[in-house]
Write a structure and sequence with these properties.
The structure holds two protein chains of two kinds. Chain A is of the alpha+beta class. Chain A has two domains: 238 residues, P-loop containing nucleotide triphosphate hydrolases (Rossmann fold); 119 residues, OB fold (Dihydrolipoamide Acetyltransferase, E2P), CATH 2.40.50.140. Helices cover 23% and strands 34% of the residues of chain A. Chain A contains nine helices and 20 strands. Chain A has a six-stranded mixed β-sheet, with helices on both faces. In chain B, helix 1 runs antiparallel to helix 12 and helix 7 packs antiparallel against helix 10. The longest helix of chain B has 37 residues. The chains are: A alpha+beta, B mainly alpha. The interface between A and B is medium-sized, with 34 and 24 residues.
């Protein structure tokens, strides 16, 4: 599959060519193909997230961009310059790792200065640059500390200063906040995003955390089994998933298997196994000869109406199985006629009253939030076992 | 579990506290060492101060005669110096050979197992057989000289056998694993992401070695060099067979005093001097490196 961001995915077209361009990149270990024919472009100053479950090849792809692993085939260019023969240490990229990877025997200052020394910056430049990078991550007073004296969040900020200090052409992030607790992770995501935006850093983020991808990234490439399943701006990925995998991996989706009973342009009518007819939009055109599809709807697109209400638009009636009060939202699980479960997430306070288990409530949602997509092709057996990285 | 056992049952042990339990656990080994190592050594040291051979007759009584002799007679000094020289050289030479080998092993690549086997192999061969094998290679008509002769590099080259060089070569060969293995294990502890981070930051492969691998493997290097030094200095069979009486180390000297000349007190004094030398060199070396690395090893071990 060759995927690239076509212009209509980018809301505001930027001048200048894409800074990073990856073409047909493949990595195989013997018979194992970990990354398979991936193509993508990241524009200058944009943040792209490589999002996928573990083993989807996202880290291998990042390592190939960094030059830490050689590709089996394909090409990577930065500003049009092919990186084929350029070793890692001459690429002038910055990189953050999940375990921070600070040099344990050097203090904070020497860690940040390391890249400047290695890249032959003039001696007089080093100290002012180090202090300006440290003050950007608000760690100036920690310059003399050793890495093991710092908390995880502080260590990652040192690592960020170490990467920023030599003005990298590309910032590569490998699950940078996975080891931090939720609160700290969220504040660091916002901090990182504002730094990347300020410095107009072209950034690649590898993550398995869809929240992180949505928070940080301008564009998301959802990966699966070494391939890009869908790439586009974050909002499109969330609101217009092209495959059930994307609809399920990024956010949550309720799926209704059904058959196409009518077509009107990009809209289709789907008769679900439950016996309800839903109107849905096709993000990917569905071939005329395909008639089994999945209709998908996000849990938060659904309104719940009390028993007896006349349903309108897309709807389903189900028996309440479980009601979970989660503070800002209420998660309700309904069972449909065929016993399939169905999740609604409604803002607390928007319901007339809390549903009771056993009642039959009506779930309604707008046609515009209903997506129809071809049922996923089953994974080919070799792909299922192959993706290991 | 404890609640099922009546008071005063065998799990009383649990109430003794960690300290007592720890002492009980180490006591068998400690007692063994006390009986078969520490006491004999103390006796040896004591013997060197309380007895001497005078004209072939054993005379007891507190005296420093054995040490006066060891320090005054040129030969003994020279042998002790040679022992230290060979042991230091062996550990330094072994360190040079050990680094590339340890890197191959620590990277766990295709050849890691083979290299480990080759490095450890000398330990599997009896020390006498191994030494005679080296003697065959290093003698005047040995394989080394034959190769030099055939290649036209040196005709009738002097033999290496019965020189310090022979002892050095064989010592490095047999004690190399004691350096390679701790070094490889220290290198394995360096997280691969730290190396990756350094490479991305602009470090050439050589800079990665010099700035990351070398300093972070120092603890392993120190342990290994200290082992090679101690083992070489205290070796007997290898220097005896390959150095002979032309380039003896202290071990050979002690053996002569004890078994050939029957001068046990002087042999004990030489043994005491050897122990002191090895201990001193090790302590000075370990302290010097520890001071450099203690500030960050705590972090590196996390």
């Amino acid at each position: 599959m060759q995927v690239s961001i076509s212009p209509n995915h980018v809301p505001e077209a930027r001048s200048g060519s894409g800074l990073l361009s990856v073409r047909n990149l493949t990595k195989s270990y013997g018979a194992l193909t970990v990354v398979s024919d991936v193509s993508l472009t990241v524009e200058r100053g944009k943040i792209l997230a490589l999002l996928g479950p573990s083993g989807c090849g996202k880290t291998t792809l990042l390592k190939m961009i960094a030059g830490l692993t050689g590709p089996s085939a394909g090409e990577i260019t930065v500003d049009g310059e092919p990186l084929g023969g350029v070793p890692t240490h001459r690429r002038r990229f910055g990189m953050l790792f999940q375990n921070y990877a600070l040099l344990p025997h050097l203090n904070v200052m020497s860690n940040v200065a390391f890249g400047l020394e290695m890249q032959g910056f003039p001696k007089a430049d080093i100290q002012p640059r180090v202090y300006s990078a440290l003050s950007r991550v608000e760690l100036s007073e920690y310059a003399k500390r050793m890495p093991h004296e710092l908390s995880g969040g502080q260590q990652q900020r040192v690592a960020l200063a170490r990467a920023l200090v030599y003005e990298p052409r590309l910032l590569l992030l490998d699950e940078p906040f996975a080891a931090l607790d939720k609160k700290l992770r969220e504040s660091m995501q916002l901090e990182l995003r504002s730094i990347c935006n300020q410095l107009e850093l072209t950034t690649i983020l590898v993550t398995h955390d869809q929240d992180e991808a949505l928070t940080l990234a301008d564009e998301i490439a959802v990966m699966r089994d070494g391939r890009i399943e869908q790439i586009g701006v974050s909002r499109d990925i969330y609101e217009r998933p092209r495959t059930p995998f994307v609809a399920d991996f990024v956010g949550k989706s309720n799926f209704f298997p059904g058959t196409v009973v009518g077509r009107d342009g990009s809209m289709v009518s789907v008769r679900t196994e439950d016996g309800v007819t839903l109107q849905a939009e096709c993000v990917v055109p569905i071939d005329a000869d395909v008639d089994t599809v999945l209709a998908a709807v996000r849990p938060e697109a659904i309104s719940l109406l009390p028993p007896g209400t006349a349903p309108q638009g897309n709807h389903a009636v189900g028996e309440i199985r479980q009601v979970v009060f989660r503070g800002s939202t209420i998660t309700t699980i309904l069972a449909l006629a065929d016993n399939a479960e169905f999740v609604c997430s409604t803002p607390a306070g928007s319901l007339e009253r809390l549903p009771k288990v056993g009642e039959r409530w009506v779930a309604c949602w707008p046609v515009s939030r209903t997506i129809a997509m071809p049922q996923q092709k089953p994974q080919s057996p070799e792909n299922r076992t192959n993706a290991t990285a | 579990m404890t609640h099922a056992i009546p008071n005063g049952g065998s799990l009383q042990l649990g109430r003794l506290g960690h300290k007592t339990v720890g002492l009980l656990l180490v006591s068998p080994a400690a007692l063994f060492l006390l009986a078969f190592f520490i006491i004999p050594n103390l006796l040896l040291v004591a013997y060197s101060f309380t007895a001497q051979m005078r004209d072939g007759v054993l005379v007891t009584g507190l005296n420093l005669e054995n040490y006066r002799r060891a320090f005054e007679v040129d030969l003994y000094w020279r042998v002790l110096l040679r022992t230290v020289r060979v042991a230091v050289t062996a550990s330094v030479v072994a360190a040079f050979f050990a680094y590339p080998l340890a890197m191959v092993i620590s990277q766990r690549g295709r050849f890691a197992k083979i290299v480990t086997l080759v490095v450890v192999a000398p330990l599997l061969v009896n020390v006498v057989i191994r030494s005679y094998a080296w003697a065959q290679l290093l003698s005047r008509q040995g394989a080394l000289n034959w190769v030099l002769d055939q290649a036209g590099i040196a005709e009738n080259a002097p033999q290496l056998l019965y020189t310090e060089w022979a002892v050095l070569i064989a010592s490095v060969h047999v004690f190399l694993p004691f350096l390679v293995l701790p070094l490889a294990s220290a290198m394995e502890k360096v997280p691969s992401t730290v190396v990756d981070a350094a490479r991305v930051a602009g470090a050439t492969p050589f800079a990665v070695f010099r700035r990351i691998i070398l300093p972070l493997s120092l603890p392993g290097l120190v342990v290994g060099m200290s082992l090679v030094f101690s083992l070489t200095a205290a070796a007997y069979v290898t220097p005896q067979i390959l150095g002979g009486n032309f380039a003896p180390l202290v071990g050979t000297l002690i053996e002569q005093q004890v078994l050939s000349l029957n001068d046990w007190p002087f042999g004990a004094a030489l043994a005491t001097l050897l122990i002191l030398t090895v201990l001193t060199v090790n302590l000075v070396f370990l302290k010097a490196v520890e001071r450099r690395t203690s500030s960050w090893t705590a972090g590196a071990r996390e």
